[in-house]
Amino acid sequence: MVQPLLALRGVSKRFAAVQALVDVDLEIRAGEVVALVGGNAAGKSTLVKVISGVGPADRGVIAWEGRPVQIRRPHDARALGIATVYQDLAMCGNLDVVGNLFLGREIHRHGVLDEVEMERRARELLRTLPIDIPDVRAPLATLSGGQRQVVAITRSFLSGPRLLLLDEPTASLGIEQTNQFLDLIEELRDRGTGILLISHNMGDIKAVADRVAVLRLGRNNGLFDVGTTSQEQIIASVTGAVDHSGRHRPSTDPGERWS
């Protein structure tokens, strides 16, 4: 039996008096897109921080290809092959594409920046992706939202990731750019990359995700196969109209939002 690329068992995380995650389980396989959804304060961002090493879990087991591992720092996640692309992208608009790709990991030759080699590698990486960036020396600020997302993902490729965490990647994109980006996600899945997609957009989820994991108030509240589950069923689990056992019940949080 093939082990999941990443498996979380009983993961919990507390911030002072706030219990952000409670006994959360999650599996992601190679070549699979798992969408992570939930309302406000569901624990999505906290779970991403646990997996990426930014905010280690207080308890629980994390396994990589069936082997228990410790992810205490971002370096630990990167060493396993986990890369994260955050919603704000964390890039510099005044630098060109090459400068952003190699920011903090510049290539030197005889003590001098090897601009030629960095540009060559940038072009080589970008050619493999479906969204075209014709000028790798263009300042990032001049690119479209979709092109910037591609640069952010391409930067993560420099470490050879096997699992990619995408935090609301289409939130600021138009319809055409979103479609291009969803094509990119499908291509990455076809290459065998595991993807955790955090999104509020049910259209995007239905388009590319294989499974949907629902968090509600820091707990698992459903795991669904996208091909056999209606959008209404998933939203009911998100809002609390249906709990993890399948029982219908009203939401206990009047301030909870789902879009």
Automatic annotation (TrEMBL):
This is ABC transporter ATP-binding protein. Residues 6-242 form the ABC transporter domain. Keywords: ATP-binding, Nucleotide-binding. The keyword Nucleus does not apply. SUPFAM superfamilies: P-loop containing nucleoside triphosphate hydrolases. One of its GO terms (molecular function) is ATP hydrolysis activity. Gene3D superfamilies: P-loop containing nucleotide triphosphate hydrolases. InterPro entries: AAA+_ATPase, ABC_carbohydrate_import_ATPase, ABC_transporter-like_ATP-bd, P-loop_NTPase. It comes from the Bacteria. CDD domains: ABC_Carb_Monos_I (cd03216). The keyword Nucleotidyltransferase does not apply.
